[in-house]
């Protein structure tokens, strides 16, 4: 009998089934990754509750593992051989367009499921498409030649490498998109894995003041923010964040606001506009709101604020994230709070959603699925 691969498949909104797929026959320019860690983030929560596709999908878009099988052409092209540990970006680029040539695979249409029904992207591709294994919530992942791979440095464990996605997003959004640098002042709203990653990115870049907001529910995460280098934290359920930001900046306001809140409505954006300095501040938003009634555009333009979009990461940000993890300079391992096996995929996603008691009073920060946990 052919070898079988166990996978957690999303079969309907909020529903996961364990299924077996035949081990694919890989082409000469492809490979198979034995998945060690698949990170779960807020995007998974959204995709699980309201899938954008009707087909069965193996979710899991933040994947780390070891090359288990590699075709000859794959090895020649990618410089990767069996046994190498890699982080695989979720984008599967075309490698022909200008974006791909710049390492900006996130903008390539070949990987954009929103505009291209035949797009390939890990965690967002039907399991009915050839090779089937298009998500990390499975024992193996199919890796074509045009997947974007990064070698994991020696000394970085698979669990730590599982943080590359949030950390690369933090580097991309804080440093590249918002331009945080030496002596900069920053307000980070929301102490989840993205917000905490941005604390590290900002400190590493030389920011003079990093302030993080959260609610009383986030007490443990705010404590973690301090351990990662935040200069001040604000519990917005206990004190007025605008007054506090003004106090902390001598009335000037901050250079940059990074909105890393999820589902917090319009309040963080409105606070951000007010908390920015008098002119030429920058705010990066994730834009979950389909509509924003009474958006204060006048105030935005009067303050000459640049409003920018947080959208994924570049090749370079992933490399920088791996270097940051390898350096051990910040206790980033403290972000990795929870692990689950494949059979617990539903529970793992619901833990990220905050639907289940995450245990220990700390709440979940970064949750990983370990597809081989509990197996021989
Ligand atoms: Zn993610
Ligand atoms: Zn492309």
CATH class of the largest domain: Alpha Beta
Distance between the termini: 19 Å
Total count of strands: 15
Biggest sheet record = 7 strands, mixed
Bound molecules: zinc ion
Number of helices: 12
Average pLDDT value?
A: 95
The helix-strand sequence is: EEEHEHEHEEHHEHEHEHEHEHEHEHE
- Secondary structure class reads alpha/beta
Tally of domains: 2
Q: What form results from the Cα inertia axes?
A: globular
For this structure, the CATH topology of the largest domain is Quinone Oxidoreductase, Chain A, domain 1
- CATH superfamily annotation of the largest domain: Medium-chain alcohol dehydrogenases, catalytic domain
CATH architecture type of the largest domain:
Alpha-Beta Complex
Rg is 21 Å
Helix content: 25-40%
Uncertain ranges:
none
Share of residues in strands = 15-25%
What do you see in this structure?
- The structure is a single chain.
- The protein is α/β, with parallel strands linked by helices and 376 residues long.
- It has two domains: 187 residues, Quinone Oxidoreductase, Chain A, domain 1 (Alpha-Beta Complex), CATH 3.90.180.10; 144 residues, 3-Layer(aba) Sandwich (Rossmann fold).
- It has twelve helices and 15 strands.
- Strands 3, 4, 5, 6, 7, 14 and 15 form a seven-stranded mixed sheet that branches. It has a six-stranded parallel sheet with strand order 10-9-8-11-12-13, sandwiched between helices. Strands 1-2 form a two-stranded antiparallel ribbon.
- Helix 5 packs across helix 6 and helix 5 packs across helix 11.
- The longest helix is centred in the middle third of the chain and has 14 residues.
- The mean pLDDT is 95.
- It binds zinc ion (2 copies).
